[in-house]
Structures are given as structure tokens and as C-alpha cells.
Design brief:
This protein has 306 residues and is of the alpha/beta class. It contains eleven helices and 14 strands. It has two domains: 15-143, Murein tetrapeptidase LD-carboxypeptidase, N-terminal domain (Rossmann fold, 3-Layer(aba) Sandwich), CATH 3.40.50; 158-300, 3-Layer(bba) Sandwich (Glucose Oxidase, domain 1). The strands form two sheets. An eight-stranded mixed sheet has the order 6-14-13-8-9-10-11-7. Strands 2-1-3-4-5-12 form a six-stranded mixed sheet, sandwiched between helices. α6 links the parallel β4 (108-110) and β5 (128-130). The chain is globular. The model has no long low-confidence stretch (mean pLDDT 95).
Length: 306
Amino acid sequence: MSAILRPPRLEVGDRVRVVAASGPVDRQRFMAGLEALEGRYDLCFDEASLFSKHGFLAGDDDHRLEALNTAIADPECRAIFLARGGYGLLRILAQIDSRALLERPKPIVGFSDVTALLATCARSGVAAIHGPMISQFAGLPREDRESLFRLLENPEPGILLLGLENVVSGVARGPLLGGNLEVLSRLLGTSLQPEFDGAVLFLEDVGELPYRVDRLLTHFELAGVLSRVSGVVVGDFTDCDDIQVGVEQHPTTREVLVERLERLAVPVVFGGTFGHGDRNTALPYGTEVHLDATNGTLVALEGAVS
């Protein structure tokens, strides 16, 4: 992967645009998230646009694409926060203005469905942040909120994750790429697939039963991704275990993850505090990290911003 551009750091009070580019936004959860942000940034959004609904989308494709591209092109906007995940970014991904993002680089923050957008940022050569969205913000511990502020405002290297479980020993270095396993799988074999060679791959998911997690990881293996990465960090797989019925016992999600990943010849760790669970530590996307599976650490070698 070629060198990545790190957007300028933020300062308290900077203008940040909030965009709904995926599913409809719940007003109550969104307003609680705004309150939890405690006025740290000058959040700019259009209420009528933000709370639009078009089936399972936050407005039709043209509406959501215009809102996102407007935010990307805005010279006064220092960062873009996604309001929530859900579904919808894949439908507009090919029309996102990557040239404007390079001309006016700014960190884009989100996870889940936003994985597709973060991967596009990295492929375009701009660092992003895998982190909490506004609608999730109120339910997170202060340390996770602070992890996001730190990545947005501090360009220095530093520890990202501690206490990781060693599944396959070793150390690795490379750009941090990944996100939601299901969403990321939809980019495989397309022109928008990230450049996984030498990357440290991080994965999370929600609501995928164990056999589906197995199928997704097998897809990654068949696509050659797992043989090209330099390491793997596994976060939360929330609500992914089905209820055991009768005498037939199925593997748990953890057992599937171990069976699929412990065969790799690269370091693998579990226990990352990111995803759809009670924790969502912010992580730089596309920048260099160092993974030490033996000591259970993931360390940023450069900031997400400059």
C-alpha cells in the first residue's frame, strides 16, 4: 500500500459536518449522542435532511450522496461524523468524490456500514477513523469517547489496544485495515477492494450466526486476503451465537473464529474493544500500526491526523 495522507488535526471548537449516509437516524439516540459530545466541536447538520427516511435508507441515493459529497467538498469542514450505520453506503460508494477528499482531506469517522466508506478513503490515499457514530456515542464509556478525541486532535503515535488475547504468537507491522466483516466482504473482487497486502486486518460483526461467520471468513480465505495480511485483530462479534436447540450442538462464534484463524502463519489476537458491543475504541484507518500478539498490544506508529 502506498503512503497515505493524514488530514490536518482538529482543535476544540472546529466545524464538523454530520451526515446520514446509511440507515434512518433515530432522533432520540442522536440527540443523546450530541449531548454526550459536550459541545467539543461545532457540529453542522440540516435537521430535515438528517432525519429523512426512504424505506430502510436515510433518504434516497441522490439525497445521501449529495449530503456526503457536500461535506467532503466543504472547505470549512474539518471532519465528517456519520450519524449512524445500518445499510446504504454500498449503493453510493462508486460516486463518492475521492478527488475532493484528496484536495481537502478531513478525517471521516464511523464503523459498521461505514466500513465501506473508510475502505474507500484508504484506497483513495486518505486516512480515516474507525470509531463511534453520533447515535452510539451516549452509550459508550468516557475512555472510548476520549479515544476518538485523541485520534482527531493528537498526531502522535501511541497505544491503541492493550490486553489482547494471544491466539497466534508473533509481531506484525502494516497499515490497519478492516472493520465490519460482512460489509468488507462485499468489496472483495470489486474495484473498491482495499489493498490488503501486508496490512494488519481488524474485524468485528453483529448478528451473524456462526455458520455465516465461517462462510465470510472462508470467502476471505478463498479471495486470498488471509494469505496476504501481516496480522489479524478480532474485536466484538456481538449477538452472533444462535440458541442451541435439541441435542445437536453447533460451534460457537468464538470456536469458528479460532478454527478459521489459528491456522494462519501470522500473529492473531482476540479481545479488541471495538465494534457493536459495550465498547468501541477508536482506531486509525489506513495508517501504520505495530501488533505484538505475545504481549497483547496494538500500537499506532503514526497518528490518524497530521
